[in-house]
Amino acid sequence: MIKQIGQWPCDPVVVRDTGEFVKVTNDNKLRTIHGLEYPVPVNFFFSTDLGHMGEITLPAGGTGPRAMEKLTLKGDASVYVEDGPITFFFPDNEDTFTVAEEEVVFIPANTPFMLINYEAKIVHAIFSVGGPDF
Q1: What is the DSSP letter of 12?
Q2: Contact 116, 33 (CB under 8 A)
Q3: What is the pTM of this model?
Q4: What is the pLDDT of residues 11-45, one digit of tens each?
Q5: Distances from the Cα of 97 to the Cα of 44, 60, 105, angstroms
Q6: Could you give the CA distance from residue 17 to residue 8 in angstroms, rounded to a whole number?
Q7: What are the CA-CA distances from residue 87 to residues 8, 33, 101, 105 (Å)?
Q8: 125: burial class by Cβ within 10 Å (0-12, 13-18, 19+)?
Q9: Among 7-16, 55-64, 71-80, which is the least confidently predicted range?
């Protein structure tokens, strides 16, 4: 499925040339899983040569907080916390930021980060990434 990144849901040149709108629903999101040791759902609303947008859901429960594995994006990213709070951990400098619901965090390109859920509920974020490579 990850090979569809940059090609889904339709050819970006066609969309730009025709000005078509594509309605994204739960049925036609590109559903992926990020991580092998700590898998989390990452669903894409769109993915083109100019950028990507989607959602990340971190489950709750277990013997401690739930985290996604480290991720380093090639483009600048913004993450909107829809249901939170979500803790952002930056392993290179060991900084953490807890981001409340309806807040946004900016992550510069090539900055490794992780999302951590310390809550007893599912948390959810919407992200956008600029650039051709996710």
Answers
A1: H
A2: no
A3: 0.81
A4: 666 666 666 666 677 787 888 888 888 889 999 88
A5: 24, 19, 9
A6: 16
A7: 30, 20, 11, 11
A8: buried
A9: 7-16
